[in-house]
Design goal:
This protein is mainly α and 392 residues long. A hairpin with a 2-residue loop joins strand 1 and strand 2. It folds into 4 domains: 60 residues, 434 Repressor (Amino-terminal Domain); 105 residues, no CATH class; 132 residues, Alpha Horseshoe (Serine Threonine Protein Phosphatase 5, Tetratricopeptide repeat); 70 residues, no CATH class. It has 21 helices and 2 strands. The relative contact order is 0.10. The protein has a two-stranded antiparallel ribbon with strand order 1-2.
């Protein structure tokens, strides 16, 4: 079995194939030659902002830099093609309308699979379920609830396409989600679609444009919001998306502004809640703040924030958020030269959300660095490296 290259390795290969020296590429990326050299050789991880800078300088997508983490993609490729075909023929569902009870059960299962980061299981379910939900919505005419179910399903599909490094498919899915959301007459559904739209810009490393999408969605939603927890969750989630985009754009003021607004909204909720595939509350807001410290080159603050979160884990958070927390913690500990702590955090991520940990770019980058820094003989690292495709 062959190993799969990481972002740092792909940067080196693409740079050399274009005949570009490290000095020139480093200058175009706005980093030092020493830093670029360490990224290429696996002594430093390729962060999202580094990947975005390399993609722009090398005229490729961030997906090309991050690479394909699967060593045996046959089933995954077949399932993605099935999903792609369903999304393409969104107005021509070939599935029959299922009984209401059966459809509701499958919709709930799809949402849980997404939250539990069981991406391949969700991918097996989505093509047929999307067709059934769409057929039901067409049969129901202008029923807002039926179209809301379609919109939420496209939100699940976006999560799969995003995590499996399929940016073109993710873009198409977002357009379909917007199409369905507009038929709900529900501003919350449209805002959830905007959250994913901003996510496509985040994945592409186009942080300023993503922020513009978030700001527009917030302004539109604030003018139409109603009472109850749903508006708080949707609006708060938009601000959390803004936190990620602003911190990766190195805009400290915008990051703090979105954080403050998110905190005020989260304080009005008793715990973290899930609506339209969006998780929001004080716990998730804290996890986004921790991640922002890492993006803003403040890993010590991130490590300090993690201690109380480890002692008293936020309630209501699903594996997709807890797993990401441990990946971020591994990244922060690595940056503070706590190699053992980084390894322990990665092991926790693999335990909580194994499918995410196996394919997440930062999980693989941190693991690559640990694997190279004199720790090849550590058995737990070797196991994780094999699961991520970093070792044959």
């Amino acid at each position: 079995m062959e190993s799969t290259p990481t972002a740092g390795e792909n940067i080196a290969v693409l740079r050399k194939s274009r005949g570009i020296g490290q000095t020139k590429l480093a200058r175009q990326m706005g980093i030092t030659v020493s830093y670029l050299s360490k990224i290429e050789t696996g002594l430093r991880p390729a962060t999202p902002t580094v990947v975005a800078g390399a993609a722009k300088a090398l005229h490729v997508t961030t997906a090309r830099i991050n690479g394909q983490p699967f060593t045996s993609p046959s089933e995954q490729a077949d399932l993605l093609n099935d999903l792609r075909n369903t999304v393409r023929r969104h107005t021509l569902p070939k599935e029959d309308t299922p009984p209401p009870g059966e459809l509701a059960q499958k919709l709930q299962r799809a949402s849980l699979l997404r939250a539990d980061t069981k991406y391949l299981e969700l991918l097996r379910l989505l093509p047929g379920l999307l067709g059934q939900a769409t057929a039901t919505a067409f049969a129901a005419g202008g029923d807002a609830v039926a179209w809301g179910q379609v919109s939420d399903l496209y939100g699940c599909a976006y999560g799969v396409a995003h995590r499996l490094s399929e940016p073109d498919l993710a873009d198409m899915i977002v357009s379909r989600q917007q199409w369905a959301a507009q038929r709900t007459w529900n501003p919350a559904a449209e805002a959830a679609a905007a959250w994913n739209e901003a996510g496509t810009y985040q994945s592409a490393g186009q942080y300023e444009d993503g922020l513009a999408i978030v700001d527009r969605a917030i302004s539109h939603f604030e003018n139409s919001r109603s009472e109850g927890p749903e508006p708080l969750i949707v609006l708060g989630s938009l601000h959390l998306r803004g936190v990620v985009l602003a911190s990766r754009h190195r805009d400290k003021n915008a990051t703090e502004d979105h954080l403050q607004r998110a905190r005020r909204l989260a304080a009005q909720l008793p715990n973290d809640q899930l609506v339209h595939n969006l998780t929001f509350g004080e716990g998730n807001t804290a996890l986004y703040e921790l991640a922002a410290h890492i993006e803003l080159d403040q890993p010590k603050r991130a490590v300090e924030m993690a201690s109380p979160l480890l002692d008293h884990p936020p309630k209501g958070l699903k594996p997709n958020r807890v797993g990401r927390f441990f990946i971020d913690l591994a990244r922060a500990r690595l940056a503070t030269k706590d190699l053992d702590g980084a390894e322990q955090a990665l092991k926790a991520a693999f335990k909580v959300s194994p499918q995410m940990a196996e394919i997440h770019p930062m999980s693989r980058e941190v693991l690559r660095v640990l694997f190279i820094l004199h720790q090849r003989s550590r058995p737990d690292l070797m196991v994780m490296a094999k699961r991520t495709g970093l070792a044959p």
